[in-house]
Specification:
about 150 residues, alpha+beta, GMP Synthetase, Chain A, domain 3, 2 domains, 5-stranded antiparallel β-sheet, 8 strands, globular
Length: about 150
């Protein structure tokens, strides 16, 4: 089975997202429990509600039904990014300067792939994390996954 081009799917729904002032945080096409799932993670100023997700699911589903971008049966899911939202783009890191994040690299840097610290800045295409006394610079191109890791009080 051919996996659809996610950049084409993103481009197809970009107008709807802009009309609704909604940000696409992440997009995944995965197999779960024997079915294919197209999962949109959306956010907006003030946060996204369950009603927003249902509404956007209808809008996105209608838009995708008019295309031939997904050649197989699939389930569409629209969700909030959650408190541990993924950080992918430069703008994500800039938006969350001062917040704690965990970063996993594609390959080890000085023997480590996993880093945890506060996003200090973004400079020259690299994220600068402050982890206690240590500051580490991680090139965006070397990052496999980065997520917020909020301090939660329970």
């Amino acid at each position: 089975m051919a996996i659809p081009d996610l950049s084409k799917i993103e481009a197809a729904v970009q107008g709807v997202l802009e009309q609704e002032s909604v940000e696409l945080v992440d997009l995944k096409f995965v197999q779960e429990h024997g079915r294919m799932v197209l999962r949109f993670f959306l956010d907006k100023t003030g946060g996204i509600t369950l009603d927003d997700c249902a509404y956007m699911s209808n809008r996105i589903g209608s838009m995708l039904d008019m295309t031939d971008l997904i050649p197989t049966a699939y389930t569409l899911e629209v969700s909030s990014p959650g408190v541990d939202r993924v950080l992918k783009r430069e703008k994500d890191f800039l938006r969350f300067v001062g917040h704690r994040a965990k970063v996993r690299l594609k390959a080890p840097l000085e023997g480590r792939r996993n880093f945890m610290g506060y996003v200090k800045t973004l400079e020259n295409g690299s994220v600068v994390l402050e982890a206690g006394e240590q500051t580490v610079t991680l090139p965006l191109t070397d990052i496999e996954e980065a997520r917020l890791s909020p301090d939660l009080e329970i």
